[in-house]
Amino acid sequence: MAVRMEIERYDAKAAAPGTKQSMTLIADIGLEQPLELPVLRIDGAAAGPALLVLAGVHGDEYEGVETILRLYRDLRPEQLAGTIILVPQANALSYRGGTRISPEDGVNMARAFPGNPEGTPTERIAWHLHHRFIAHADFMLDLHSGGTHYAVSTLVGYYHNDGTEIGRRSRAAAEAFGIDLLWAHETIAPGRTVSSALALGVPWLYTEAYGGRRIRREDAEAFYAGAFRLMRHLGMLRSNEREQGDEASPAAPRRIYGDGNFDGSETAKADGFFIPELPLGSPVAAGERIGTIYGFDGEELQRVVTSRGGVVVMLPGTPAVRNGEPLFMIAPSEPHIDDGEKRGSAE
């Protein structure tokens, strides 16, 4: 049974070596009912780094939630050197409705960091996550997927800056994670968990997967095994026995670059039914056709063509599209060819 406490009483540094704890942290976020934030924590039998794993920043993304629950079920304190702190439902407001945006205030939590203690409910939750969790981590992993709105290639995003310690550590961790598509971000747009981590000097990764408000087993296993590989990479696994994630990572992962902000995706120019001609992960050349939007009279309303080459990393989560909605994103396969736009993370 979870221990309930006011969030102000939670001390991220108060380790209890050799223990597993389930907690519910209570916080006033300006609504009639207080927030109940579930936190799962395992303090290893030996000293080591603190790994923070977040899921549910968007309430319609479930792969990360499953990953966290499986990690808490399977990990034993005697296996660990250090502490793993697991937050399976970072945004309870959007999770309750299965939505990307918090219904109570219309805020996308992945645009709200580092938050505001006197702001909207979502901004207040972001403030607590920034100050009480991210600020005390030695490494952060934020688990995302396409959710309802997008279908996304399974990938790991990281800070691509080998001139800094954070960049070097993020890149090494991404390569150890074991997913064969890496999204390299040279700069990070504000408002994300990862921009908070960067500002605090905390190295980080985030993941993406197909989504669709259901969990593909291959994505669940990629996240779960990747988390074990990350812990082993960070020196957190003590056992000499063969563990989940021991299998070798891909020798030469593919790397993509540029703008990772889905808010800046190419958009539909008409209401209609979208039929793609290329699967996610496909390489494309400038001028290549991605798909077509049709009307129900059979008319072609929009031939969807890319203006630049790269890799297809996002398509609509459902074929019914509306004018102005995100339709696709192409990530360059070479650095420094993003047309000078602000780069961010795919969250």
TrEMBL record:
Enumerate the Pfam families for this protein.
AstE_AspA_cat
Domain Succinylglutamate desuccinylase/Aspartoacylase catalytic, chain residue ranges per copy = 47-234
Q: Does the keyword Plastid apply?
A: no
- Cofactor(s) for this protein? Zn(2+)
Molecular function terms, GO-annotated:
hydrolase activity, acting on carbon-nitrogen (but not peptide) bonds, in linear amides; hydrolase activity, acting on ester bonds; metal ion binding
Gene3D superfamilies cross-referenced by the UniProt entry: Zn peptidases
Alphabetized CDD domains for the sequence: M14_ASTE_ASPA_like
Recorded hits in InterPro entries, A to Z, give:
AstE_AspA_cat, N-alpha-Ac-DABA-like, N-alpha-Ac-DABA_deacetylase
Keyword annotations from UniProtKB, A to Z:
Hydrolase, Metal-binding, Zinc
- PANTHER family, per the entry: BLL3975 PROTEIN (PTHR37326)
- What name does UniProt use for this protein? Succinylglutamate desuccinylase/Aspartoacylase catalytic domain-containing protein
Name the lineage.
Bacteria, Bacillati, Bacillota, Bacilli, Bacillales
